[in-house]
Specification:
Helix 10 packs across helix 12 and helix 15 (299-308) packs across helix 16 (312-322). The chain has 23 helices and 14 strands. It is of the alpha/beta class.
């Protein structure tokens, strides 16, 4: 995965405000609409857009070969999302649009309905207020790349495209047993999905054009058209194997259409890692910082640097270090906030671990204008923490770090001289864990949009999860 090119930053409070309220995607969507429709009065158009449009409404296309289950998936998604289903059948037989009569005339003459007529018919239907407010699901549209281009030029751009696929032999078999309920429009199958209700059984009808010759012809046409559709929608397209239980297909489709695509909006990562000692926060912070070029900030290291550099704040910190007393929160926050507001952090973004440790420190950071846009809590069992920390050793000669189980010293001579840091003794680990867990619940409630990580697994797996959460947009608050 290539690292994203983070856009130029805004002043942190402005950036946080814009991200929390979805301003950048809103402006991006509005600009797209302006460029598509080119209104004479852009200002009035934007006012109307804000009044009428719902950017969160579903805009979905369900594509796939005949008998792949498009109708079933579309109907289930409509139930879950309260969206409007648009298909050939609804456009021709359920609507009274001005162009319906013209399209039906082609159908009655058994002629192919032109792409332009389909596109105009779809545009007409989607301009109705129910589609604007509730969103829409296009079932089986667009059928080819020309239709897709026509829809795009009319401003009809799906957010998610689901493509169902299955072997042709499976589709031909499905098609021969396909039955339709004319009342509910649900699709059943004589072998795989026969309804239990005898009244439903009696009214089922066999759809037209279900012969093997006809389905083979339609499959050939679909396979010829699909590459163009894939090229058009590949960035927003999800392929799902339709040769599995229906509810599994629906579940996968629903999961996908409820995701939000990564936005091109300006974004400067401000990442916070929280977790007990031994959870791997520092390792993951170093990995993220190295890959994405953001600044790695460790609170304890910051305090040591302030003392070493003999700054005014550092002199104050030194007095607490000398007396082996905890540094007051307000002093720590000043040092952390000063570092996070320097040019490299504001420009490139930052990852902070080791602070805050409790809700009071979190509130002080917030008041200082330090608002993370990604917060992670690392979780792992007590036994794993003790195993990781109590067996750590250091070579006093070389400074090399070892672990008696995971990374033992290579020679007996080195093993003999290894030392244990006093903080890694079991009684001290327990004391540090007790301090962390005493405050963890309040801190988790304070950062309510945080992500939770199972840190008791391979560090590469942990890193991939963190990376996916940084790249994908945050869920919008209702």
């Amino acid at each position: 995965m290539e690292p994203p090119s983070w856009s130029l930053p805004l002043w942190p409070p402005l950036s946080a405000y814009a991200e929390q309220r979805g301003l950048f995607p809103l402006l991006q969507n509005m600009l797209e609409d302006l460029l598509i429709h080119k209104p004479e009065d852009p200002i009035q158009y934007m006012i109307n857009y804000l009044k009428e449009n719902n950017d969160d409404a579903p805009r979905i296309c369900i594509l796939g070969p005949p008998a792949s289950g498009k109708t079933t998936v579309a109907m289930w998604l409509c139930k879950h999302l309260d969206a409007i289903r648009i298909s050939q059948e609804t456009l021709l037989f359920k609507e009274t649009l001005p162009l319906t009569k013209e399209a039906k005339a082609y159908k009655e003459r058994k002629q192919k309905i032109p792409n332009a007529l389909w596109a105009n018919l779809i545009q007409e239907r989607l301009s109705n207020v129910d589609c604007i407010k509730q969103g829409w699901i296009l079932e089986g549209f667009p059928e080819n790349q020309e239709q897709a281009w026509m829809l795009q030029s009319s401003g009809i751009i799906p957010v998610h495209v689901v493509v169902l696929y299955a072997p042709d032999t499976v589709l031909i078999e499905r098609n021969s047993g396909k039955r339709l309920d004319p009342v509910t429009e649900e699709v059943f199958h004589t072998t795989f999905d026969w309804p239990r209700d005898p009244w439903v059984q009696q009214r089922l009808v066999k759809p037209e054009d279900t012969s093997e010759q006809e389905i083979s012809k339609k499959l050939l046409e679909y396979h010829r058209s699909f590459p163009g559709l894939f090229q058009t929608y590949q960035k927003i397209l999800k392929s799902i194997n339709a040769d599995q239980p229906c509810m599994d297909v629906v579940s996968q489709a629903l999961t996908y259409v409820q995701t939000r695509h990564r936005s091109a909006a300006p974004f400067t990562p401000r990442i916070l890692f929280c977790g007990p000692p031994g959870s791997g926060k520092r390792l993951q912070a170093a990995l993220i910082a190295e890959k994405y070029g953001i600044v790695n900030i460790c609170c304890g290291q910051l305090l040591k640097e302030a003392v070493a550099e003999k700054t005014k704040l550092g002199e104050l910190v030194k007095t607490y270090f000398d007396d082996d007393r905890p540094v007051p929160d307000n002093l720590v926050v000043k040092i952390v906030a000063k570092r996070l507001n320097t040019l490299d952090c504001v420009t490139n973004g930052w990852v902070l671990c080791g602070f805050p440790r409790d809700i009071e420190q979190g509130e002080q950071l917030q008041r200082a204008g330090i608002i993370p846009n990604r917060v992670f809590f690392f979780n792992l069992p007590y036994e794993s923490i003790m195993e990781r920390l109590s067996q750590r050793r250091i070579d006093p000669v070389t400074g090399e770090r070892y672990h008696t189980t995971f990374r033992p010293a290579p020679a007996l001579e080195i093993q003999a001289r290894l030392l244990q840091n006093p903080k890694d003794k079991e009684e001290n680990i327990e004391r540090r864990l007790e301090a962390y867990y005493r405050n963890a619940k309040d801190l988790e409630e304070f950062y309510e949009d945080a992500f939770y990580i199972n840190a008791d697994q391979d560090p590469r797996v942990v890193f991939e999860f963190i990376e996916s959460c940084i790249i994908k947009p945050l869920p919008r608050k209702s």
